[in-house]
Amino acid sequence: TPDIFVFQSGFPAMVNDRLLRAARGEEVDQVPVWVMRQAGRYLPEFREVRAKHDFFTMCQTPSLSCQVTLQPLDRFPLDAAIIFSDILVIPQALGMEVEMRPGEGPVFPSPLRGPEDLSLLAPPGDACTKLKYVFDALTLTRKELKGKATLIGFSGAPWTIMAYMIEGKGSKTMSNAKGWLYKHREASHKLLKIITDATVHYLVGQVQAGAQVLQVFESHAEHLGPQLFREFALPYLKQICDQVKEQVQRLGLPDIPMIVFPKGGHYALKDVAALKYEVIGIDWTVDPTLARELVGPTKVLQGNLDPCALYSDQKSIDAAVKDMVQKFGRRRYIANLGHGMYPDMNPDHLAAFVQAVQKHSKD
Ligand code: CP3
After folding, report:
1. Does 322 reside within a domain?
2. Is 202 marked active-site?
3. Structural domain for 151, as ranges
């Protein structure tokens, strides 16, 4: 529609499109870099805002979300900003209650008990009207970024979201959620489909609002293994990518690069590479050379330094980054950690990481 065209073209011109170029497989002057959880508690300026507001209130207040999204970019020369939000806003939009408890993480007071509880969920098509605050945060942040970095929107992948909806909190074994896959196969597919439909609406809405790249977090891939992944994760990751791309095209918007991050899913990299995601996130357990072998020459890879390497001294960080960049190569590569920042990390060590990427990847 004309409205959307005016909207998208009304954003500031890109001054730095390094990440966008790399995601499309184009040549870059240096490897683009950002890190998962770059906005978070390791930054004193984040803790200051967080001390005054509840976590989900921050997500729901566009000015606060924008403020903390931009905080790491004021400190480090990052090539992307990832919008401050959480993957669990989808279960919330489907009608479930989620609390963020300090020291404990996310908790669902009433997780799904069995297939009969699926009837309690809101229709997936309606879910996104409740997430307008994310769209507003994206639009505001895209303007405030002034083209200096690429804006990333995101969602959780259906299996990862399903696992939280059933477990109700983090779990070492995911045995309740995996129990569904074996006991309630049909209901599991029904739930995964509901989450997929809501997620497609949500991601397309993020693009309309100004997101320039989308990342889908399959953070709990490690619990599945090749067979379960093929039945319960892969088809839904495929639907999300195919449908988002199709709908974005139908709206007359430019094609959007998509990143899939199957954390702990080394066993599934070949299958994942058959999907249309341009970029595949690699965790630190996979050697870059093996990752490239598994996904083939055309995919863009993202990752994968062990986040805990940031506990070492700055000289060791530099050496580790040099090795990582050499192994991945300068083309079709986005530098990142193999998972997110932890709250006790030293911001200066992240600075060393970013600086090392730039130093070792300039042409
Ligand atoms: O900087 C960014 O990466 C953007 C914001 C972002 C958050 N969560 C903010 C957050 C993103 C992209 C996420 C995604 C997310 N959320 C994932 C996928 C990525 C991953 O880690 O695998 C998952 C599994 C969640 C669910 C979630 N949210 C958990 C398990 C936790 C608790 C862990 C922790 O670090 O405490 C959260 C909380 C959360 N999400 C925080 C932040 C900044 C910390 C909470 C706080 O401030 O109290």
Report:
1. no
2. no
3. 2-35+77-300
ipTM for the complex shown: 0.93
Token digits of residue 183: 């006991």
User: What digits encode the pLDDT tens for the residues 285-331?
Assistant: 999 999 999 999 999 999 999 999 999 999 999 999 999 999 999 99
Closest by CA to 284, choosing from 309, 267, 259, is: 309
Residue 153 lies in a domain: yes
Q: Give how far Cα 118 sits from Cα of 35, 131, 172, 189, 228, Å.
A: 35, 20, 24, 11, 21
C-beta of 92 in contact with ligand 1 (< 6 A): no
Is residue 72 within 8 Å of residue 34, measured between CB atoms?
A: no
H and E: helices and strands count for the chain: 17, 9
- Side chain identity at 261, as an amino acid letter? F
Check if 106 has its Cβ closer than 6 Å to any atom of ligand 1: yes
Whether 30 is covered by a domain: the verdict is yes
182 catalytic? Reply is no
Q: Is 46 in the pocket of ligand 1 (CB under 6 A)?
A: no
Closest ligand 1 atom to residue 36 Cα is: 3
24 is catalytic: no
Any ligand 1 atom below 6 A from CB of 262: no
